[in-house]
Amino acid sequence: MFDALTAKAPDAIMHLMAMCKADTNPDKIDLGVGVYKTEDGATPIMRAVKKAEQLWWQEEQSKTYVSTVGNADFRRTMLELILGKDLLEKYDPRLASSQAAGGSGALRLGAELIYSASPEASVWVSTPTWANHIPLISSAGLKIKTYPYYNRETLGVDFDDMLSAIKEGAKPGDIVLLHGCCHNPTGADLSHAEWDQLSEFLTEHKLVPFVDLAYFGLGRGMDDDTYGLRKLVQTQDELVLAASCSKNFALYRERVGLIAVLTKDVDSAINAQSQFGAIQRKIISMPPDHGAALVARILDDPQLREEWTAELDEMRERMRSLRAQLSDALNVQGGEVMSAAVKNQNGMFSTLPLSKAQAVALREKHSIYLTDSGRVNIAGTNTTNIPRFAEALLSVI
What we know:
2 domains, two-stranded parallel ribbon, Aspartate Aminotransferase, domain 1, alpha/beta, Aspartate Aminotransferase, domain 2
């Protein structure tokens, strides 16, 4: 049986990580894998997480199963964090939610629910989008279509082209996948005014938003990063939300995610809630509880929450500082567009106007590791290596 299998090409990011690890150059720069890093290149456990873990270790009484839809306190506190107390109280009767195995698991649960409700719906994704969006969503049976998003000359959002393409090709009931903030891989986000216009557009064309909120808190602050999602909750009859705690709680290996849907009425929310449990049961049965319990503990404990918020602010401001430093280093003749874009974009990532050959040259000649698409993890830079990175980048361009 298994002799019929053929080898699959390695995941591009995993392959990049392996190449970087094998490089013996002590001055190599790893801008590939999407994790937050400190100035010395470490990805530490957040202080509030460590304290919550110590408390939970003392208090936890059982390792029995929790529920097919996961930890109820986690779902409640996460929805309150994302929506705010007032919006959650207002829309809670129309909401259904489930804990998921990371943001990826949340996307898959959302795709499965959409397919159960409307198997003929197409899901529209941005060009480019996170590399795993299409495999995760299409593997549930849904059709994928694309809309233009990132202009590799201006390094900004082609908003008018985005709306035109969706208007021309989408049918009522189709799904539009949107990055809530800190667009991966480009870092180019919609403005508040564009979110406002988009909400009217979705209503007019009877389209359903599917918001992927993987990096909230790491762009321009919690309220700013959830502006688009909150706008859509207040203006749309239906909505799908996938959220992750991998980045903003640094719980990468704990696989902590949330999937939620806003429905038209209470009865639909009850039905969707039962569907989440049934779908998760057939995929992984029960989600892991440890990381979700830590998030719930942090968000329910005023002192831990304050400490977590302060540390999240430190992470965000450090990345904004790195962007400013890189922008200054690139602000020379021929680098002006990159300089402005890097400074104005949000979150961990930027996609630079590099060809595959130029990305390869950066790896082979300068030991600088980034994807062939030109995506860089800003958190992989530091005050020491930014001048060398900028010099090498300008030299290959």
